[in-house]
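[Automated response] Your request has been received and processed.

Submitted sequence:
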Amino acid sequence: MGDVTTAWGKASVAEEIKLAQSANGKRFTTHVQLLEDVSGGWFVRFAYATDGVARRGPVTFRGADLERLRKALAKAPRLRSALDLGGE
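Generated structure:
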C-alpha cells in the first residue's frame, strides 16, 4: 500500500480505509491507516486528503461518518482490532 514517514520513522501502510466527506461545498477524503514499522510496531494514523495529498490536522467525523467507518472496518480486520475501544 505504500510507505509513510512518521515522527518515529518510516512505516508501511498495512491497512487503510478512505471515507469521502464534504463540508460547505468542499470535498475531502479522511484516511484511517494501520501502519507498521520495520520492527513490527504499529500505529494508527488519522489524516485527511485534498487533491490526493494527505495532510495532518484535526479530523472530524459526523455521526453518519462514524457509522460508515464502522461498516468499512468490517473489511479491515487488523485496523478494526487496533481501534477496538471496548465496543461491541
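Summary generated for your ticket: The chain has one domain: 3-82. Residues 63-73 form the longest helix (11 residues).
If you did not submit this request, please reply to this message.
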